[in-house]
Amino acid sequence: MAATITQGFLDHKIFSIISEAAQEMGVRAFVIGGYVRDCFLARPSKDIDIVVEGSGIALAEAVGNKVHSNVSVFRNFGTAMLRYHGIEVEFVGARKESYRRDSRKPIVEDGTLEDDQLRRDFTINAMAFSLQKEDFGALVDPFGGIRDLASGQIRTPLDPDTTYSDDPLRMVRAVRFATKLSTPDHPFVIVPESIESIRRNRHRMEILSKERIVEELNKILVTPKPSLGFRLLDETGLLDYILPQLSKLKGVETVEGKGHKENFSHTLEVLDNVAAAETEAIAEGRLMDYVFEDGQETAQVRTEPNVWLRWAALLHDIAKPATKRYDENLGWTFHGHEVVGARWIPKIFQSMKMPLNEKMKYVQKLVSLHLRPIALVTEEVTDSAVRRLLFDAGNDIDDLMLLCNADITSKNPRKVARLHSNFELVRRKLVEVEAKDAIRNFKNPVTGDYIMETFGIGPCNLIGQLKEHVKNAILDGEIENSFEAADVLMRAKAAELGLTPVK
């Protein structure tokens, strides 16, 4: 199937340059994949994939000479890449692939455009634009990708059992594309035969590396409505392989006619709430990221979604099944689920081969603290409680508040409105207390070295006692956060402990 495209998709100068270079070399070249798809969806794209019936590397080098651009060559993969006027162009030779049962790494042979399209994951990613002089701009669409774009369907070019069994990562990619491409006006769905095929082939997930799975999950998490992806993962049975702890949130248990909240649905609602709130805050420039460079902390306005905030939303109630209890007076309780959940985070991250650095600690902190602001909403908002929250959250306080606000869900709109209103009081109190007491990233005014010098003592437990006494006094509002006030209090407490200053 070939049809001439007239919408101006190939107006950028780079396409005519590639066409000219290909003609000079006597090879055929095509734009393929995501760029073609995104043209029809009116989505911005700065990544262009070029498939060549011949050497992709050689064509890239020829184009690089014409545009005076450096070419990065990846000979192990047979690919090359260059940048031109803000656009990244990747070249690869057309190929056909075959697979072994125990590996998703294909056996690769040189092939034609048709061979290359057959190896593509979905019909909407298999469309190509011709760059030949004789039919420049013609759409090559052998599997009905245009039809599937119009109807919002994720469909495989080949039999889905073949596609998914050969490379099981495509099962997660199907979920990712259905999530990423969906809009309120134009949803995308995985066709029923593909859904059934994924269910049949889900055991093939066992040959995938955790890193590649997480890479796809992260792309789902930063979409505008990530719940779509996780519901599809659940529907296809993939969730049990990927994150079984999340699957255990499903279901409602009833005792004496009393049931608890359906925690799986609640979690996905919170996840979507976080995505919407973060997107709005980014657009308004209200969120900051803090990075350390050369020993100095610098603040940067957040411009992209924080995937780790999305992970915190996904995992914030992960321990509820383990802490669920029924009390005759209180009904269903989940006491301590934030503590248990925080304790689980390192194990979950380790099992999924995710980083065990400050990113894991960030998620762990938000899971551990996610009930604290809500408790302030329902209780008296004291300066002391606010100071301690600021102390524990540090620079992550804004993300924590965003998560906690998103966690307010109920079928009672009046209750939700009241809690959101009270939440704003907490937010304003945080700003007020921080401006007055500078508790965020609190550093004790008196140091261990100063205590040892003042009293002529070496390292001992008394130093920790004095520092803790000063810290608590500041957080409780008994003294101001200053060296002078802290020094006076420290000396008074030291006298009680039998210490005499030597200076």
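[next item in queue]
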Amino acid sequence: MDIYKQMCGLSMNKIFRNEMGLAYSYDDLIFLPGYIDFSMNEIDLTSRISKRIELKCPIVSSPMDTVTESKTAIMLALLGGIGIIHCNNTIEEQCNEVKVVKRYNNGFITEPIIFSPNNTIKDVRDAIKIHKFSGFPITEDGKVHSKLVGMISSRDIDFEDENVFLKDVMTQNPVVYKEENGSVKLKDANNILKKCKKSRLPIVNNEGELQSLICRKDIRNMNAYPLATKNKQTKQLMVGVAISTHKDYKDRLHRLIEVGADVIVIDSSQGNSSFQISTLKYIKQTYPDVDVICGNIVTKEQAQNLISNGADGLRVGMGVGSICTTQEVCGVGRPQATAIYEVARYAKESNVPVIADGGISNSGHIFKALALGASAVMLGSLIAGTDESPTDYYYKDGVRLKKYRGMGSLDAMKKYSSERYFINENAPRVAQGVSGEVTAKGSLDKYIPFLIQSVKHGYQNVGVKKLSEMHDNLYNETLRGHLRSSHAIIEGGVHHLYNHERSFQ
């Protein structure tokens, strides 16, 4: 063949199917540029994390207790991704975190928090602390579909004794929207809310009985976050939950489904096990309409076992996270770039999406994971230092930090996560992770858009507008790249400067 007709670089098949058996990480690879004939605005990052769940932003938060609770899940869902609430807690605690997400942005809120006139100010203050909002309807018996008699907000209870009854301080005869013929359009209700300049608008029937509620905040969010990940039926923000394969998982599962969890992640360091398969089968038999993401895995053989038993999505990565020591301690795992390529190549035949979990330390790694066949990435350390992550900020040597720990660390095992590693009470605890610190990154509201815009630049540079096109090029071998030497890796980063500043990674 004429050398000038050959494509530059190597196909990923050529790189990964090498005779020497070498496996590669993200930094070992670089992709070659393509032809740009479109603007950044034409790029669509829509992807799937399971057979039925689609995201506008291909980012999933890791189910770690220093990464994802309700604040993380809310903001990530507003931005088009999804958060996975960790299970290193009690059933009640995990359910409460899901409830907070579900009540955040609802359109029509059909199950609002309601009080009766005989409730006290203390009851309202307690609810404000739990649910993080400050306005509530009051009905005759404290239930939905009962006659609306008033509204209560934080302004009504300021400076009042906690034992005062709500009937003595509530706003009576609030502005309402009456249903017509048993129906109401959200657009019409929103217009009423705008005109009355109230923060909340109760929806009542002809008898004055409360049917639902809409909030001014929801209108703002619909405009500010057009990519938000919402349940198509309820219009609520979507949220995932993690469960283990031990002890209380059935009770935990039932409760989480009841409060509205949209996707289940079976959280295990090694997903190819009888324990996970048994759990997977139970979920699919009991809740066939709920998607289940399984893992973690790194081989096509592992993927085959989980897919054949009903897995709707796969979580790929073992021992590659910044605080994970499985490869070091156990000598088992696989470099992440190779793992993603091999598992995704197999899983695509069954239409099962792959989530790249671990080893991602910058936006370039996100792009590489997607280019190698992943449909989304799961982030831990990159999210742990944000305002929304569960831990508090503190200062050390003048640097603003947050705590970050692996679920296989001894610190995390002291609570609940030892179950994840099949540890019984009498066995020595071998840590497969560490506890550490990460620097502050500010709010996800600014950080995630930065990452996404960087990924879009990657898409444009290789000449693709959407993920399906990227994966087509991957498998037809028109997406090309090279392996990098150690010197090439240095060359591709910041070098030969006295110092430099970097706002984001």
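[queue empty]
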